[in-house]
């Protein structure tokens, strides 16, 4: 029987979760059941386009096949543990997986009209938008691992350590839930989610096969049909996996750069000690010419007095000059005991202008969801702290007070 992943303990069910099978694997699954390959397209549409999770409702399948599917397969989605909604429309959910772990996903709506040819990473640069259509952009930021092993020092998820890889079904479930269950029908477009970014918890390229399968499903015409410009995988720089990603699936790439020199990046993104900037930039240069929009997005979190000086901007210009690059400047979202503070707006503006003067496309992202726990991993961290506190108190025969 087909498997979706490298082994991942995601729960006790022995049934295969069809939510995580891209078309090629679903065809193989039906072949093993003695069915024709076209069943894959039918079932993809039922699940991902119509949001149906009960095989009995799949009316264009024979009764015998529906019964067979109910015996060997399922369409299982996680439970919502916490939902937070920001004043600006940003929504954040903590999902409880079968294994008892929690992960986060974030929905970021954009009210502006946008240019569909704009970059595919989910963030609109209002100064560049040509307003050629009336669709709104709504980005879903998905998690790919429970926790993260890479321990970037400014990241709340990194502080929690690594727990396990998510399955393709668990990754796709985030889009399924946002599309069919969670986001109100408040947007002027049929499509509630227009962009997906793999920028939630975890390093996507360290969960390679599941991320490839999930990205395939997101871009599959019989499923969500997102264009390759609108599905962005973000990496902290797992260099050997970058070329492999491009061989397997045609998606946009974002690189979490955050520092323009090895000495600083070694501290902020410890993975840099293994794959220093020279190797990372060479991998980017290989990826960029065939990337969906022929460039790479570089994410740069703005940390006051750490990486935001004029000198840092000049070093970044030197690093990116001549490269097919776009820089996103991200105001740091503080979380307790991070040890960092957010750069001031004045400083971010000055940094941006310096890059722009050097001809580097630079987009200062607005802070979103400021009134909710917006730092990635922060909410799950709080949930797990509470759970651990509860366990400790129970061990001591005490009850939590709230
Ligand atoms: S920034 Fe990304 S890669 Fe770094 S620790 Fe956080 S989740 Fe992991």
CATH superfamily of the largest domain: Aldolase class I
Number of strands: 14
Task: Give a short account of the largest sheet.
Answer: 10 strands, mixed
Strand content: 15-25%
Number of helical segments? 12
Tell me the domain tally. Answer: 2
Q: Which bin fits the share of residues in helices?
A: 25-40%
CATH topology group of the largest domain = TIM Barrel
Bound molecules: iron/sulfur cluster
Query: What's the helix-strand series?
Result: EHHHEEEEEEHEHEHEHEHHEHEHEH
What is the 3D form? Answer: globular
Order of the strands making up the biggest sheet: 3-4-5-6-9-10-11-12-13-14
- Decide which structural class fits the backbone: alpha/beta
Question: Which features would summarize this protein structure in a list?
Answer:
12 helices; TIM Barrel; binds iron/sulfur cluster; two-stranded parallel sheet; DNA polymerase, domain 1; disordered C terminus; globular; 402 residues; alpha/beta; 2 domains; ten-stranded mixed sheet
Topology:
Blueprint: E1 16-17, H1 23-32, H2 38-49, H3 63-72, E2 73-74, E3 79-85, E4 91-96, E5 102-110, E6 137-141, E7 145-147, H4 156-160, E8 162-165, H5 168-182, E9 195-198, H6 208-219, E10 231-235, H7 239-248, E11 252-256, H8 262-268, H9 277-287, E12 296-302, H10 310-320, E13 325-331, H11 345-357, E14 361-364, H12 378-395
Parallel strand pairs: 1-2, 6-9, 9-10, 10-11, 11-12, 12-13, 13-14
Antiparallel strand pairs: 3-4, 4-5, 5-6, 7-8
Helix pairs in contact: 1-2, 5-6, 7-9, 10-11
This protein binds iron/sulfur cluster (SF4).
């Amino acid at each position: 029987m087909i498997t979706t992943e490298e082994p991942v303990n995601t729960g006790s069910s022995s049934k295969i979760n069809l939510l995580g099978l891209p078309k090629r694997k679903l065809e193989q699954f039906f072949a093993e059941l003695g069915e024709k390959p076209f069943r894959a397209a039918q079932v993809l549409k039922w699940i991902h386009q119509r949001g149906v999770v009960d095989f009995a409702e799949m009316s264009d399948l024979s009764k015998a096949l529906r019964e067979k599917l109910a015996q060997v397969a399922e369409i299982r989605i996680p439970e919502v543990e916490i939902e937070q909604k920001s004043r600006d429309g940003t929504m954040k959910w903590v999902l409880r997986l079968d294994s008892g772990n929690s992960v986060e996903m974030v929905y970021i709506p954009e009210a502006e009209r946008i240019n569909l040819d704009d970059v595919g990473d989910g963030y609109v640069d209002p100064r560049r938008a040509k307003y050629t259509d009336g669709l709104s952009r709504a980005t879903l930021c998905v998690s790919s691992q429970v926790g993260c092993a890479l321990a970037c020092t400014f990241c709340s998820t990194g502080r929690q350590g690594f727990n396990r890889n998510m399955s393709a079904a668990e990754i796709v479930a985030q889009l399924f839930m946002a599309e069919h269950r969670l986001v109100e029908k408040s947007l002027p477009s049929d499509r509630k989610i227009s962009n997906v970014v793999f920028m939630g918890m975890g390093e996507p390229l360290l969960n390679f096969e599941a991320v490839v399968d999930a990205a395939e499903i997101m871009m599959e015409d019989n499923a969500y049909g997102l264009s390759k410009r609108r599905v962005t995988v973000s990496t902290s720089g797992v260099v050997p996996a970058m070329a492999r990603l491009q061989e397997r699936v045609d998606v946009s790439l974002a690189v979490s750069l955050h520092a323009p020199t090895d000495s600083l990046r070694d501290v902020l993104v410890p993975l840099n000690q293994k794959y220093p900037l020279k190797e990372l930039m060479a991998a980017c240069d290989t990826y960029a010419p065939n990337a969906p929009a022929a460039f790479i997005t570089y994410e740069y979190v703005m940390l006051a007095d750490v990486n935001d000086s004029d000198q840092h901007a000049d070093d970044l210009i030197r690093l990116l000059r001549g490269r097919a690059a776009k820089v996103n400047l991200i105001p740091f979202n503080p979380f307790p005991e991070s040890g960092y503070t957010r750069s001031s707006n004045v400083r971010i503006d000055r940094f941006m202008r310096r890059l722009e003067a050097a001809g580097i496309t630079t987009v200062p992202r607005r802070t979103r969801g400021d009134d909710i726990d917006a730092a990635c991993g922060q909410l799950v961290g709080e949930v797990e702290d509470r759970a651990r506190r509860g366990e400790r108190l129970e061990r001591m025969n005490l009850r939590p007070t709230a």
